[in-house]
Amino acid sequence: MSILRAIGGFFAKIGRWIRDTAWVQPLLIVGGIFAIIFSIPYIVDGVQGWFESGNASESYYNNFKQSIDGADEKESQADRLLDYIENQESGTATTQQENEFGKKFFLAFVQKSCSGCETVQPGFETLQNNWNSTEFVPEDGNDFRLYTIFVDEETDAELSGDENTFTKYLWENHAGIFEQAATSVSDRPYYTYMGGEQSDYNGLLEDISDPENFQTPTIFMIDFDDPESDTWTYGISDILFNFEGRDGGTTSYALARTLIDCWNHKGIFAGE
Q: Is the pLDDT confidence value at 70 over 90?
């Protein structure tokens, strides 16, 4: 106890000295101000960490982005991709187009600050990182392909009111794809699994044909490389929204299992 009293007395003396020594107090105040200033970068880093998940998700999707800039002239990257899909449907796709885009890929419509987009993104990344290994083997031997279109991308297109480039130009440029998408999967197993009496899925499908209510994420499985592809309008074999992992799991690997099942037309994506 005597040791504790000695330590307490020591600090008490320091406190009285600071109190009674006028020139020390301004130094302490100035030092405190500088301490706050120098700590600001660390505070900023900490606040930015709160948004890491969203930023990481957006950064990932940006790696596969097909820009809609130029859609007002039908000259955007996204237009070129959707033109290719239309050409495949009509049988006029060129070898150059096939080499550029491939005959099988995921097409995801996303936007910034989209919780559902953030939720499913780890599934895509895990699938990509483990592609062609362990349980993530594509049965057709194709490469992993993902294309993303940001429906909220800001461009230099002439707009008014609440219009944006996606709704006014890109959707209108390729209305056939979007209008047919909702009905093109009505005979597919995943529709039977997710649809049926579950009106939410059917409602999301209907929203695809209404640019003002288009939801994100909306994910098309485009497959022109399957024997059945001739029966799939615009090559759309399945459509996913904010999906669950296989068997209801929520981990990135569970989500990736759903995606590889979709790619391989297995599990809940397979017919009887």
A: yes
